[in-house]
Amino acid sequence: MPSAGIVVFAGLTEMVAYGAEGLRWRTKRLSWDGLKIVRVTEHAIIGEYWDMRTGATRTFEVDLATGAQKGGVEEVRS
User: Fold this and answer.
1) What local confidence, expressed as pLDDT, does residue 78 receive?
2) In this predicted structure, what is the pLDDT of residue 21?
3) Are 16 and 69 in contact (CB under 8 A)?
4) 62: which residues sit within 8 A by CB, 6+ positions away?
5) Residue 6 DSSP label
6) In what order do the strands lie in the sheet with 56-63?
7) By three-state DSSP, how is residue 4 classified?
């Protein structure tokens, strides 16, 4: 994400971002398995995950500057 000055790595369940100074942020768990990035904007990463409890696809959004997330399995469980 050149505009944010970070490199983002996505695993099966969470994301982590590094900047020139090192670790910038790490999300909480976004999915149980197989998160999917569907869109990247100037300010956020938007993705999807399969919610096994409801049998539906749900979305999440991660702020590029802070790593704050809206949605994802951790938010649903809280």
Assistant:
1) 46
2) 92
3) no
4) 15, 27, 30, 44, 45, 47, 68, 69
5) -
6) 36-40, 44-51, 56-63, 69-71
7) helix
Please report the pLDDT score of residue 73 as a whole number. 87
pLDDT at site 1: 63
- Report residue 74 as tokens: 């951790």
**Pairing relationship of beta strands 7-10 and 15-19 according to DSSP bridges:** antiparallel
Residue 23 structure tokens: 């670790």
Q: What is the model's pTM?
A: 0.87
Domain locations in the chain as residue ranges: 2-77
One-letter amino acid of 15: M
Locate 57 and state its tokens: 């696809």
What does pLDDT average to in each consecutive run of 10 residues of the chain (78 residues)? 84 94 95 91 94 88 96 70
Query: How far is the C-alpha of 47 from the C-alpha of 31, rounded, in Å?
Result: 10
